[in-house]
Amino acid sequence: MTDDTQQSVLLTTFTSKKKRYKVFFHQGKIIWDNERPPSAQITVPIENVIAVEHNVLQPKHPLDDPTVDFNSFIIHYAERGPKKVWKYCSILFCHTDQLQVSSWVKTLQNHLQTFTHRPKNLLMFVNPFGGKRNAMRVYEKHAKPLFAIAGVDVTVTVSQRKDQIKDLISNHNLDMFDSVACVGGDGTVSEVFNGLVIRECRLKDVDIDDRSVELPRPSLPVGVIPGGSTDTIAYCLHGTSDVTTAVLHIILGDCLGLDLVSVYNENRFLRLYASVSSYGYLGDVIYHSDKHRWMGPKRYDYSGFRKIIANRGYQGEISVLFERSELSQSKCYENCVLCIGKDDTETASASDIKLEEELVWKTITGKYFMVSGANISCACARSPNGIAPYSHIGDGNLHVVLVHHTSLINNIRLLLRLVKKSGTIEDLPFIEVHKGREFSFRSIDKASRWNCDGEVQVEPDIHAKVRCQLLKVFGKGNPSSVDESSTRCCGFCK
Ligand SMILES: Nc1ncnc2c1ncn2[C@@H]1O[C@H](COP(=O)(O)OP(=O)(O)OP(=O)(O)O)[C@@H](O)[C@H]1O
């Protein structure tokens, strides 16, 4: 915000729904009294305002044109509600003096124009196949009207096949867009992320199969609107899988740097993932449940039950490139200092040089129920703490979670712990967690598959490497709720 816009002051008494309001605008905040008792004030930071416009009166006769009412204006804004959910709000103010109204409209619109980080031309992908197969309805009902109010020009593409989104993004000219978004589950988000990075490598002539190269950062930020079955990525970015919250974050334009993990076999690049790659139990579940998609999200319960009974453990050798520093028990919340510290490329590379010296490989061999490389906590509505509660979205590390082969009872304890609000799976005695930058896995004996962002990856022997904040995503991060911050607060985020 420029100094001029920061300094502007407005004070006018307006009417709204036959009630008089003293409305004040100063230092980037619009303030008015609450309509209903208790008589508190409503304060809306200009950063949360979506649009300001003169009111348009709808004609009494359908054949007449709507008319602009220069005596009233509407402020459209976003407000954080309870349970981490944001909601859309609006208020209409009227005044007998048109000059008063136009002065407010002009001043506020001038402020909004300084928010150049907000998307104007958005490329939107909708996956009609994922989740409950209602992504198009979700878009039409919850996203389209808000984008229209915000004046975002949205170009919608409905995917027709698996990998189409990835192919379109990686091979087409996207110069006319300033951002990309999707409505879908983790598989759809993963296609968008993979498409953008593959495209950037093509444009910058970077050999993506060479694990040692720095992968170039795509410039377009990505919006993630949940429309799948688990929606882990959306949940971890916003602390909720509420659609309106995700849409409002795209409109408001705040961005976070998200780590991505690149996965290779011995010779070439396989894919990038954003949430988790799991071998063993969850690999078996995704492979089995993919054949029962007709069941919808219930397929995970069905396959989960079948595969927990059938699990006999998988032998494997895991090597982790890890930091000597301790595994910090800090959760990743909004304004997380640990992630913000990695935001600046220069700072990141300086600390990288320092840390390179402290990085060491360790190798562990054993029999496992499940092996996971979690890039984020992987919390979702079903699992409020996720598989790796202390994994951060942009700190350049992943958490390798090893669940040792044990009894069926213990496996069930693990699943119950995953769905519980309190406690984490790390408290269980048969779980081992290693924080690292890279890991590789080699299967011994009978092999399972990997479940990468909810997609089947058939090659068992892989190498995975975290790419620190490779992408910008729309969001503010997971807001900490009172009970969470009072139990185990992030030492870094405080
Ligand atoms: N039109 C389509 N027909 C068939 N498959 C599609 C189509 N569009 C996208 N896909 C594929 O659908 C798969 C599932 O999508 P997605 O991951 O979004 O939903 P989900 O699996 O229900 O959700 P989640 O991953 O959150 O559990 C992805 O692999 C995606 O590539």
Mind explaining what this structure looks like?
The structure is a single chain. The protein is of the alpha+beta class and 494 residues long. It has 2 domains: 3-113, Pleckstrin-homology domain (PH domain)/Phosphotyrosine-binding domain (PTB) (PH-domain like); 121-487, Tumour Suppressor Smad4, CATH 2.60.200.40. It is 28% helix and 34% strand. Strands 12, 13, 14, 15, 16, 17, 18, 19, 20 and 21 form a 10-stranded antiparallel β-sheet that branches. The longest helix has 18 residues, at 186-203. It is elongated, with a radius of gyration of 25 Å. The chain starts with a helix and ends in a 7-residue tail after the last helix. It binds adenosine-5'-triphosphate (ATP).
Question: How much helicity do the residues have?
Answer: 25-40%
Q: Supply Rg.
A: 25 Å
Distance between the termini: 27 Å
| Total number of beta strands | 21
The general outline is elongated
CATH architecture group name of the largest domain: Sandwich
Averaged pLDDT, please?
90
Largest beta sheet, briefly?
10 strands, antiparallel
Tally of separate domains:
2
Low-confidence stretches: 346-351, 482-494
Name of the top-level CATH class of the largest domain:
Mainly Beta
The CATH topology of the largest domain is what?
Tumour Suppressor Smad4
Ligand list: adenosine-5'-triphosphate
Quote the beta fraction. 25-35%
Q: What's the total helix number?
A: 13
Global structural class:
alpha+beta
